[in-house]
Hints:
Blueprint: E1 5-8, E2 13-14, E3 17-18, E4 23-27, E5 30-32, E6 38-41, E7 46-50, E8 52-57, H1 78-86, H2 89-94, H3 99-111, E9 115-120, H4 124-127, E10 137-138, E11 143-147, H5 159-169, E12 173-177, H6 188-194, E13 202-206, H7 212-221, E14 224-227, H8 229-236, H9 242-247, E15 251-254, H10 266-281, H11 287-294, H12 296-301, E16 319-323, H13 329-335, E17 341-346, E18 349-354, H14 355-361, E19 367-372, E20 375-380, H15 383-394
Parallel strand pairs: 1-6, 8-9, 9-10, 11-12, 12-13, 13-14, 14-15
Antiparallel strand pairs: 1-4, 2-3, 4-5, 7-16, 16-17, 17-18, 18-20, 19-20
Helix pairs in contact: 3-15, 11-13
Amino acid sequence: MHTAFTLINAPIVGPRGLERSKRLGVSGGRLARDAKGREVLLGDDHIVYPALVNVHDHLRGNYLPRVGPPEGVFYLNWGPWDADLKASPVFEERSNIPFERIYFLSAYKNLFSGVTTVNDHFPHALNDEILPRLPIRAIREYAIEHECSSYDLKWGDGIAIEHARAVERDWPFITHLEEGFDPESQDGIGILERAGALDAHALLIHCIGFSDEDVAKVAKAGASVSWCPASNLFMFNATCKIRKLLRAGVNVAIGTDSTHTGSYNLLAEARFARETYRALYGEDLPARAIYDMLTINPARAFRMADRVGSLEEGKLADVLVLKRRHDDPYENLVAATSEDIELLLMEGEPVLATAELAERLGAAPSGETVTIGGRKVLVKGEPDSLYREMRKAVGFDKKLEYLPFEPEVRA
């Protein structure tokens, strides 16, 4: 049930920076200029943001530890990694957990990093029944090709058909592209061009094999790129030409990929992205740019910028409230961890709230209470029970770093 309330007295990060008015209304699941109902006092020790958007994840594949090449060796393309994963003890261990439960674990990976919107890079036939039951929004409006090469996994109905569907329905057309350095991988842009599928609907994942010409073509087409630096460097010892992409004006968003190769959540990936940029170019990647890559840029890539990605009247009330540890709101976000999340709203309903803020709000997530950083946090669904269930399935007290709590001790 949607409620009406107004968050007051905390700095609010709007589309043009900090808002003068420290008031954010929520009514009917959307952001409103004036909302009836209670006023929820925050304060200068909080900062209010749009909830984050994870542009690329594999919700069937979030498990730990990572699986990759031998030390000092890297892959030519994704194929050998897939073989290594499926032959690994980690994959065998993961197989003890029903894939539906892996989806819920993955949803909490995202929720505990301030994410309310994510894409699961799997075909609809494999996830359509599960996605609506998750505690966050996993988008269902997308067309998909696993990868634009002859060795892809044949997800979807083929590049041309899937792209045409995306155009007809105003969806993103999502595909891994140039994830490798063999000749066919590096012809990814050519494959898209010949299929008539390089345009503003295209959301291209990884793109580590791009030439300068490829960068220019992507910019001209208005396509978007998902940057997943942790996964890229772990598997290939390289990432996309991120500085050239940004200077060319390409819409870039940060994605986690799965935890089998990427960071354990989106906040960690954001920090790694900045470290990577500094190491590659000897200069800083501004925190404001990273903020855009976690909010409005992925919303644009999903063709959802009219609904999510910024705090503007009429948009869905997806709101993230963080502890204020830095004066600069963008630096505050980039430095944040799960322990800094005070409140997370999806369409105006709390999916995570500290006990204190739940009381002020007069509404709490319908679910369980966990302890994060020494404080009680109410969370939608059953993360504590799920963690126990996972440990029972694998037969020991498995630790998943993206679940930032230990299950409660029960008699």
